[in-house]
Amino acid sequence: MNEYIIMSKNFIKPVLCKIFNCILTNGDFPELWVKSIIIPVLKKGDFNQPGNFRGISLVSHIGKLFTTLINARLTKWSRNHDVLTDAQFGFRPGYGTTDAIFALNSLISKSLRSGKRFYCCFVDYKTAFDSVTHMKLWLRLIRLGVTGDKFPIKWTAPEAAFYGKFTIKSDVWSFGILLVELTTLGHIPYQGNTFYPLSIITC
Questions:
Q1: Where does the Protein kinase domain lie (predicted)?
Q2: Calpha distance 100→84 (Å, rounded)
Q3: Domains: count for the chain
């Protein structure tokens, strides 16, 4: 499929451009694009132990292309707004383990030269990315100012954002946020108030 997209790029590029712009405008992500077929691949050890397998997901190529474009935009945005620190080496183009080793070596050398003790701790969080609470991630994006086009993130009720369920309750929630933004000249709703996260969770 990837080879087909590459070979037919002159024909398919304008079509995909229209589809992607339509998705960004309407906020409707095709359901088939989020479905995947998981193939278990043995990493090592006993074949009868499920923990020894790694799941490889086969996903839609068009959907992956779309999310790649979104990721590129978010990467550029985060770089321009200094969202990520220089200490973040993972999952960033141009950064790697050698950068982390160099930084650690520099800190050790600096401590040795000044005659100070140096303590270092290595922590490996198992399935850290798989266990992130979506609501906390959602709130983090809101605070950073990441919004959508038709449905700004901070206007969208959680059930509408997560499950695509638009109800009277979610409409009232969104309209309430809109009213707050209008009366506060576009500031983040309930900014600085301790009940803001709770108001979203209990909505």
A1: 1-203
A2: 15
A3: 3
Long-range contacts of 32-39 (CB under 8 A, 24+ apart): 32/60, 32/63, 33/59, 33/60, 33/62, 33/63, 33/66, 34/63, 35/59, 35/60
Q: How far apart are CA 148 and CA 25, in angstroms?
A: 9
Dihedral over Cα of 87, 91, 92, 98: its sign: positive
Residues 78 and 88 in one domain: no
One domain, residues 107 and 154: no
- CA 167/CA 173 separation, integer angstroms: 10
Contact present, 84 and 78 (Cβ < 8 Å): yes
**Alpha-carbon gap, residue 29 to 19, rounded angstroms:** 10
What residue has token string 């068009």?
62
- Range(s) of the domain holding residue 59: 1-82
Whole-model pTM: value is: 0.57
Asked if 78 and 42 sit in the same domain, the reply is yes
